[in-house]
């Protein structure tokens, strides 16, 4: 089984979990791939080549551990086979108990701890109804830069949930003989999304659920109110640029909250304006899905500029993000931060009339600033399963030389 999913890019707005403003999240076409191989060596193995992690656990020892604190899968409805059960324990408490059960070292680095605990949580919960825990070899490789605010953890959780549910017969494998790609039914995708959200809770504690929803379904998703657009957006080409500036989402959100409390009559209208930008962006993407026109790109460029200025006013910008915007503007292009801001990544909209040498010149200018830069797109499909032969040679090699 090889699954793939994708991350989110907040095109319309910064996601602010303490207010009711709309943020529009769309899928970014940098993929995360998972290879699952059943075997009979009595071990469950996790290989994460992006961060240099390879760990294995004895299945028989895991089977003997008391994992009742994780809760039980529920079977409320036929379409919710193996759905996450109710548990009152907060994610941090579950993570600490799980660390004790599996013997995870205290000095384990944050990326490894988050990835390992998420995997073990999903493995032990989803596979608990098996007569015996299965022996598996799982490799996850991603085109996404980890820790850059691009939803890489959600892509990881969605892939892991889909693979384990399929391996443990919680959902059927949608790939038919002779096909190169398969996609699960709506009911199965709902179950994948529910479990992926639980995986995200192990990493982030109190996630919004937007990242895993976008990684599962891919059409634009709103947070925090109102229905999402029913239209899949056009495959807009973008540059994704990583400033390599580390940032803390928690600290940035706390800073905006503090500014709102200090200057409510100033900051509240800024937040309302950001919501209006998100709604206008959603409307424009809906029109483009039906009949794209050059005028739509002009509208999106204006919205991108306004959004970036608003986000700077909220205090989530950074000097290097400003530099990114300045460099691309010199080439007639428009950019904004994505994710939490404060560093991390920015996106640049590429109009369809741009020639390849023009795009390459912008990429080189950004690399000259010390940034990493990728040419990609938004508006791609969500989680799916692939036949190995349908994947690029580089992906097959990264997953173990398929």
TrEMBL record:
Purpose of the protein: Catalyzes the phosphorylation of mevalonate to mevalonate 5-phosphate, a key step in isoprenoid and cholesterol biosynthesis.
Catalytic activity: (R)-mevalonate + ATP = (R)-5-phosphomevalonate + ADP + H(+)
Signal sequence, start to end: none
PROSITE patterns linked to this entry: GHMP_KINASES_ATP
PANTHER family xrefs: MEVALONATE KINASE (PTHR43290:SF2)
Gene: Mvk
Assigned keywords, A-Z: ATP-binding, Cholesterol biosynthesis, Cholesterol metabolism, Cytoplasm, Kinase, Lipid biosynthesis, Lipid metabolism, Magnesium, Metal-binding, Nucleotide-binding, Peroxisome, Steroid biosynthesis, Steroid metabolism, Sterol biosynthesis, Sterol metabolism, Transferase
Sequence ranges assigned to domain GHMP kinase C-terminal in this UniProt record: 302-367
GO cellular component, one term: cytosol
Enzyme class: transferase
Family in the record: Belongs to the GHMP kinase family. Mevalonate kinase subfamily.
Subunit and interaction comment: Homodimer.
EC number: 2.7.1.36
Metal-binding as UniProt keyword: yes
One example GO MF annotation: metal ion binding
Name recorded for this polypeptide: Mevalonate kinase
Known cofactor(s): Mg(2+)
NCBIfam families: mevalon_kin
BP-aspect Gene Ontology terms: cholesterol biosynthetic process; isopentenyl diphosphate biosynthetic process, mevalonate pathway
Organism field: Crocuta crocuta
InterPro entries from the UniProt entry: GHMP_kinase_C_dom (IPR013750), GHMP_kinase_C_sf (IPR036554), GHMP_kinase_N_dom (IPR006204), GHMP_knse_ATP-bd_CS (IPR006203), Mev_gal_kin (IPR006205), Ribosomal_Su5_D2-typ_SF (IPR020568), Ribsml_uS5_D2-typ_fold_subgr (IPR014721)
Chief localisation class: cytoplasm
Pathway named in the protein's UniProt entry: Isoprenoid biosynthesis; isopentenyl diphosphate biosynthesis via mevalonate pathway; isopentenyl diphosphate from (R)-mevalonate: step 1/3
Subcellular compartments: Cytoplasm; Peroxisome
Keyword Isomerase: no
